[in-house]
Design brief:
Elements: E1 3-5, H1 8-11, H2 35-41, H3 46-61, H4 79-90, H5 94-107, E2 110-112, H6 113-123, H7 134-143, E3 148-149, E4 152-153, H8 181-194, H9 201-217, H10 223-241, H11 247-250, H12 255-260, H13 277-287
Antiparallel strand pairs: 1-2, 3-4
């Protein structure tokens, strides 16, 4: 028996976690009215079983390499053995895991990898996890479609993690040639939604393509890294300047101006401390 958390990549990873080789934190869905959650806590020891489930998620998030996240420790291949391993990792009583694992298997939040492989071998399907192809994932990310599975609501895909379907590599490899015009158009549309000033959209499109290509050619980023960088810098820029005196003119920056001048490189301004009338009087007294 080899257990894993079902659909780990869908429910327990996000834009940031998928960039990291090692996790020191893990995102967890917070929906509490799904059938899976209510089934789990509807038990005399429901609170303890919920705590054990969170500990299982934490243990599964530390598996290395990154592709193994979601797998539970092997133990001796039995529920008691896996439970003892989880107890050692989490410092919780192994008996709690021995109680909750069969319930999680029944609810469908945990699955036996060996059983899945046997089922798929019998049916002739691939033993890999069923995952939407990139072009489907892109559509879901744009339209914000949601679905509920096993009591957990699926999150829309992060705009920076739509994969190769948009021509921007996120796995460190650069695709042959530059993405086509349609790909730039699609990705600029996503970037433009994040930018605060929705004027000058057409000239901004050309500036966006040039900025992406500069980051790739000059800074040696992949297309995916360049695209994610430009989205992330919008939030970072607003965080630095939105409460500053210069935000009044920065808020009016057209997309093309911000991109062509690479204004994301501007450094934060020093905090200006207002001088009160009383302080002016004290200063004048000191000078006298």
């Amino acid at each position: 028996m080899k257990l894993r958390i079902k659909d780990w990549q869908i429910h327990f990873e996000n834009c940031e976690s998928k960039k990291l080789k090692r996790l020191s934190w893990v995102p967890v869905p917070n929906k509490t009215n799904g059938e899976g959650y209510t089934d789990l806590v509807d038990h005399p020891d429901g609170a303890a079983h919920l705590g054990a489930w969170l500990a299982i998620i934490e243990a599964a998030s530390t598996k290395e390499p990154r592709e193994n996240r979601g797998l539970l420790p092997d133990g001796d291949g039995t529920i008691p053995g896996i439970s003892r391993s989880l107890g050692r990792i989490s410092r919780l009583p192994g008996k709690i895991f021995e109680e909750v694992l069969p319930r999680l298997l029944r609810i469908g939040w945990v699955e036996d990898l060996h059983a899945v492989q046997q089922d798929t071998a019998t049916s002739g399907d691939s033993p890999e996890i069923a995952v939407d192809p990139p072009e489907v994932a892109v559509t879901k990310g744009r339209e914000g479609n949601r679905r509920e599975q096993n009591g957990i609501e699926e999150k829309p895909l992060c705009p920076t993690l739509v994969g190769q379907a948009d021509g921007f590599s996120l796995n460190g490899s650069v695709p042959q040639g530059r993405p086509g015009k349609a790909r730039y158009d699609e990705n600029y549309a996503v970037w433009y939604k994040f930018y605060w000033n929705h004027n000058g959209k057409i000239p901004g499109r050309k500036a966006y393509e040039k900025a992406i290509n500069r980051l790739v050619d000059r800074d040696h980023k992949t297309y995916g890294q360049a695209r994610a960088f430009l989205i992330d810098e919008i939030g970072a820029y607003r965080g630095r300047f939105e409460s500053s005196d210069s935000w009044s003119w920065r808020a009016n920056l057209l997309p093309a101006s911000w991109l062509n001048q690479e204004l994301w490189t501007d450094e934060a301004e020093p905090v200006r401390i207002p001088i009160t009338k009383q302080q002016l009087q004290v200063d004048a007294w000191d000078r006298a």
